[in-house]
Amino acid sequence: MHIARLSSKKICLFTGVFAFTFFVAGCGGDSSSSPSEDVAEQQAPASCASQGTPVSSADVATSSATVIASSDAAVTSSPTVESSSAVESSESNYVAPTDPAELLYTIDPSLAVTPDSNGFYYVADIYKALPATSKVVFVLRHSERGKSEGQESQLTENGVQMALNLGADMAGGDESFYYASTDFIRTRETCNNIAKGRGETGYQTVTWDGINGGYFLKVPTSELDTLVGKRGGSWKNISQWAYGAQITNRFVANVANDFFYDLFQRGHRFVNEVILANMDNWKRVSILVSHDVLLEPLTVYATNREIDLKFYESGKWINYMAGIAVVVNEAGAVSLFPVRGADLGWMYYVKQEE
Q1: Of 279, 348, 309, 345, the residue nearest 140 (C-alpha)
Q2: Residues 6 or more apart from 36 whose CB is under 8 A from it?
Q3: Residues 6+ positions from 179 with CB-CB distance below 8 Å
Q4: Average pLDDT over residues 97-123
Q5: Radius of gyration (C-alpha) of the chain in whole angstroms
Q6: Average pLDDT over residues 14-43
Q7: Between the CA atoms of 255, 259, 265 and 267, what dihedral angle is there, to the nearest 10 degrees?
Q8: Taking 90 as the threshold, does the pLDDT of residue 175 lie above it?
Q9: Between these two residues, 153 and 286, which has the higher pLDDT value?
Q10: Most buried among 106, 219, 224, 352, by the most CB within 10 A?
Q11: 144 CB-near residues (< 8 Å, 6+ apart)
């Protein structure tokens, strides 16, 4: 498998100073590693896609769509997610390249797609532009969920509609997709509703431990929260680690090497041993749905830290249905794209004051 080096062309990002509006809503349990986190979250509406304008709770988009049950979808009984532990594949023969440049990937310039003003590519645009001889795996965060936490947390009506809309934008032809998710209702239902939006019948959403949210952590996220001492505090530390910034929490800084893997080595390993090693067993187009604790650092890695998901600085965190696309062309060259399945690739997270 040929690994292309990262292009020197920078992704154009909009930066600036944003005013945060405090909207208290439970956000915990968004990782398959820890259902106990609690952060106030806020999603920018579609109307702010190009301006990046802060919004209040009254501005958050809602939908009258009815939640669609997925009892008609066959779900395989693959190994379930260990909800309290990080993922480590001890049986892999993976060895990280010694040349740091080989840990990085480029964006294939021959793919006729254009990023938005924030540097994200729309999932459906990549699918439509994908040559018949290429393959793609989309690794996405689940769609919008309610306030409840844990494995039983449901998608909101708006979250269901978001997934249906993405599926509808990828409809057409007789091609079926491969779907896999963590053992959480919200991740499984995201896959199911994308498939329904496409008009697929007889689809399956496989439950797979390989995309557990704790992949970049050496410890459960709950252990990180305990160390921080405030619920939700791990998000600031995770984003600081992902961008190579100074970790301002001195307790976390002292044990960072024991808590976090190296971003680039771990990201490269995920692409190789989780995605590329399994693509032959999947379909031409595959959709894997996980959690933000995986997708935040994975997207930062995929863009060589050029995308703005700097919660500790700008307040931006990976949005619902955002993540990366892994594209492999006919020649075997691998490209990574930061992608969004909704209007924005980022959302604001505002830490809840206690």
Answers
A1: 345
A2: 28, 29, 149, 222, 225, 231
A3: 191, 192, 194, 195, 203, 204, 205, 206, 286, 287, 288, 289
A4: 94
A5: 19
A6: 36
A7: -140
A8: yes
A9: 286
A10: 224
A11: 43, 155, 156, 158, 159, 162, 320
Domains belonging to the chain, first-starting first, are 40-350 (3.40.50.1240)
Q: What is the largest CA-CA distance in the chain?
A: 55
Q: What is the identity of the amino acid at 278?
A: N
The Cα–Cα gap between 73 and 157 comes to 19
Mapping DSSP to helix (H, G, I), strand (E, B) and coil, where does residue 222 land?
helix
Mean pLDDT in the chain?
77
Whole-number Å distance between alpha carbons of 34 and 88 = 16
> Residue 4 and residue 254: Cα distance in Å, rounded?
35
- Residue 340 structure tokens: 């969004």
| 57: three-class secondary structure by DSSP | helix
Alpha helices in the chain (DSSP H): 123-129, 157-169, 185-198, 221-228, 234-242, 250-254, 256-259, 263-269, 292-302
User: Residues 63, 249: contact at Cβ < 8 Å?
Assistant: no
Dihedral class, residue 60 (left if φ above 0, else alpha if ψ from -120 to 50, else beta): beta
